[in-house]
Design brief:
Blueprint (H helix, E strand, L loop, with lengths): L18 H23 L4 H4 L7 H23 L3 H24 L15 H30 L13 H23 L4 H4 L6 H24 L2 H24 L9 H23 L9
Helix pairs in contact: 1-3, 1-5, 3-4, 3-8, 3-9, 4-5, 4-8, 4-9, 6-8, 6-10, 8-9, 9-10
């Protein structure tokens, strides 16, 4: 950040990130960066370095791509600390952490917390306790901080750069797909055999679905808001997510069931995410660090 966050920009009256919210986002950025390392970079080693064993490695890499996008969301929100521009990223993170906490509690037996996993390295068992602590603490703190953040003095800057109608429609369509697939996988992980192009366990289906639902909600909010300045941060993260997912598939091409329609629908959706994310990113004006 170029300067410490304050409650309101004195020159414009625009509401900014509260120091407590900024501090929570800094902590979350560090946590997501660690998740990118252990899931995306070390996708083949989750049995030794992560909170639970993820197979196949492509699933770990997909989740790592989600965390990379989450890290980008947080870092850019901190660099552009206007609350109106950070609201969608914060709500995206909140939705993801709540859904992931519920999935964790539903499948706690799969984590390296249990006695049956005492043969796992200390790092893996420590990661499991750390994961549980993070997903209990972060959504709770975020919920507590949202109220004073919304009630803080100042106002949101008026929309000045409307999102082109074709991009809004594209985002709305992608949001619908992400939400439908995400909700289906979360509610009934067995649907993964028809909806997803590689095998998922109930736990990985639900955590993966948490990212789909979070990004689906973010794209819906961006389409409704219709302002390129408020879309920019989410668009950059959205692009990063799509690109890293595509690279993960190139890394593990043999995992994907290419003979089924789900694989080609998945590739089409990944390409659409990259295209619309890049369009929103390129069309949005760069943030003015001095004002809004």
């Amino acid at each position: 950040m170029d300067r410490p966050p304050t409650t309101v920009d004195t020159a414009t009256g625009v509401r900014r990130l509260l120091p407590a919210m900024a501090a929570l986002l800094v902590a979350f950025s560090v946590l997501t960066a660690l998740a990118v390392l252990t899931l995306y970079v070390l996708a083949d080693r989750t049995d030794r370095s992560f909170a639970w064993t993820i197979q196949p490695p492509l699933t770990a890499a997909f989740l790592g791509a989600g965390y990379a996008a989450g890290c980008v969301l947080v870092v850019l929100s901190l660099r552009d600390p206007v609350w109106a521009h950070s609201r969608v990223p914060v709500l995206t993170i909140l939705l993801f952490t709540i859904a992931t906490l519920a999935a964790t509690l539903l499948h706690l037996d799969r984590f390296h917390l249990q006695a049956e996993f005492l043969d796992r390295p200390l790092l893996a068992r420590a990661a499991a306790w750390f994961w549980l602590a993070v997903y209990v603490v972060v959504p709770g703190l975020m919920l507590v901080l949202l109220v004073p953040q919304e009630r803080a003095p100042g106002s949101d800057p008026p929309p000045r750069d409307p999102v082109p109608l074709p991009l809004r429609w594209a985002l709305a369509a992608e949001s619908a797909v992400l939400l439908v697939v995400g909700v289906a996988l979360y509610a009934a992980p067995s649907t993964a055999t028809a909806l997803w192009p590689w095998p998922l366990t109930p736990l990985t289906a639900r955590v993966l679905a948490a990212w789909l639902v979070a990004f689906g909600a973010a794209t819906a909010l961006a389409a409704v808001a219709g302002d390129l300045r408020r879309l920019r941060t989410a668009a950059v993260a959205y692009t990063v997510f799509g690109v890293l997912v595509a690279l993960a598939v190139l890394r593990y091409p043999g995992t994907v069931a290419w003979g089924g329609p789900a694989a080609w629908a998945f590739l089409a959706m990944t390409a659409a995410i990259v295209a619309t994310g890049a369009a929103g990113w390129r069309l949005a004006p760069a943030p003015d660090r001095g004002t809004a």
